[in-house]
Specification:
Elements (H helix, E strand, L loop, with lengths): L2 H8 L9 H26 L7 H18 L9 H15 L24 H26 L5 H24 L4 H15 L8 H23 L2 E2 L4 E9 L2 E8 L2 E6 L2 H7 L5 H5 L6 E5 L5 H8 L4 E6 L2 H10 L10 E5 L2 H7 L4 E7 L22 H9 L1 E12 L3 H15 L4 E4 L6 E7 L38 H22 L9 H25 L3 H24 L5 H17 L2 H6 L2 H28 L4 H18 L3 H4 L4 H14 L3 H4 L1
Helix pairs in contact: 2-3, 2-5, 2-6, 2-7, 3-5, 3-16, 3-22, 4-5, 4-8, 6-18, 7-8, 9-11, 14-15, 17-18, 17-21, 17-22, 17-24, 18-21, 19-21, 19-24
Amino acid sequence: MTLQEQKAVGGGTSSHWLAVRPRLILASAFMLFLELALIRWTGSNIVHLSYFTNFVLLGSFLGIGLGFLRVGRSTRQPYYSPVVLFGLVLVVLTFPVTVDRSSEDVLYWTSLGTTGPPAWLILPVIFCAAAVVLMGPAELVGRCFPELPRLEAYRYDLIGSLTGIAAFTALSFLSAPPVFWGLIAALAYGLLLVPRPRVPYLALVTLPSLAVVGLLLAETLTAGAIWSPYYKVTTRALEILGVPVTDISVNGIPHQQAAPAAARLQWEGQYGLPYERAVAAPQDVLIVGAGSGTDVAIALSKGARRVDAVEIDPKLRELGGSEHPDRPYDDPRVTTHVTDGRAFLERTDRRYDLILFALPDSLTLVSGASSLRLESYLFTPEAMRAAREHLKPGGAFSMYNYYRESWLVDRLAGTVQSAFGHKPCVDVVSVSGQQAVITAGATPAAQRCAGPWAGAAAGTPPPAGDDRPFLYLKDRTIPAIYLITLGLILLVSLLAVRMVAGPYRRMRPYADLFLLGVAFLLLETKSVTGFALLFGTTWVVNAIVFAGVLVAVLAAVEVTRRWRTPPLPAMYGVLFAGLVLAWLVPNAWLLSLPLPLRAVVAVTVAFLPIFAANVVFAKRFADSADATTSFGANLLGAMVGGCLEYLALVIGYQALLIVAALLYLGAFALLPRRALA
């Protein structure tokens, strides 16, 4: 197909009022913004997605790949996208779901009932709808590619993606409700979708877009929700035994209660046990998971003279300041730190009489990492040793939560034992084994137990380390629920590609680009999880990492465009050298470095293979015969890479580098001879 034919089919400059370069940037920014917004919003209403965040991500990758593959096969504008988005929003708001967390196969605890449609019905609807919605903006992006030189088009695509991340990050910083996301989507549809003769533009674009805004506005006004960077937070005033309490739910799940310290100690004895088991008087206290302030209020009531309150969610901290009846955050003895608990332990030089992990159960996963929760790196032996190093002589560490399985208590107690070198105190508060307090002194003499802990029962899994921080996964396996889901996703994707793009042989010449996409997604996952460990699992770190990956990709494109780069075999050599370097540099050594030096080394180690991989892709993509098909094959590879992320449940995150290396080796083997020459 000639360039002129591609322009005619793809909708060239003559068919759109906006010039190709700003149109490409706008469409790319909208595509990534819409992807992030769907991941964030659907997870707040369909609670299954709080634990399977890459479910919508995989649907988005499928849709983006299909959008590129559809270019050249249809002359119609993707008017279907706003219509399907309206349908998706309507279904989610009409049939919200709370999750049933009673299965041992899923990576969390505490059983709750299920309301709304069953998972087997609602999750396929969400996946398919997300794919169709994202296919529209991707098709608009893809139609710009034939109008520009390959790498120039890719360059503007990356600039647009960075703009989309910046816009979504800014709205997260401002805690903007989803109605603003809907307004941006409506504006983007209006600017990008051009009215055509004999097309009911009002019915296909204007009305669906405005209806989405209206639905999201109604949700914002009726739910009374506060949108933090992590959750949809709702509150309600209760009275328990005559005591006023503020009940806090996140993403539809009861999460915390702001209750007076005296009442909480009377109702649930576990809150006072850390102070009874620690020998030293709690003068200096660190509370990780301070939340709405009840644990802080209890520490003050126990005589603490200084409390460092660490909470990752700024909105939960604000609610604690405004709603807690004891007003603990107004006390001059309290200093608040809005950050990740593990990151705080790695950075502070203070020592404490008591370090308390107070129910740090995040109820959500880190975006971009299939199974990493916000608190995953708190429950590893490495984290416990970091806590021990910040104890004063005679100080103690304690943690409590509601545990559904007795093996979880034994696993955590064993983790504490491995870090402190002696058995901790283990108090199982309820007969059902759901509430437990684990306390360990800096030395055995610094703790006073009600009775000796018998030790972990037979069959208790070993501690979950930093490389495999999956506390709630009992066996070293991929649970059946994930395997079935991923298998269905791949089957649906195969059928969708065949229906939209035609015969698979169309993509056969770009099998190496497909494998490059698979491997790159694994590299990105390794970067996200690695930086989460080194600098915290906060949304800010996450956004910076994703932006950094795109900057590294853009740098690779610019270098390839402007300078003569080594041939592909040499660049593959640089890529493999980068993977070896990333494998050899241990996270434990990086954590020991001062923060500025740690940042420099971590960026170098993480982004060298990403940069080299994208020079390889840029050189290969520039030489491809069909820009949209080759790019679509690469994006579909990224979707498969999202499925392979779950291998980390078995092999750990570090070993993903080996899988990526094998995939890159396969891509090198599939290089066409002319590319090698």
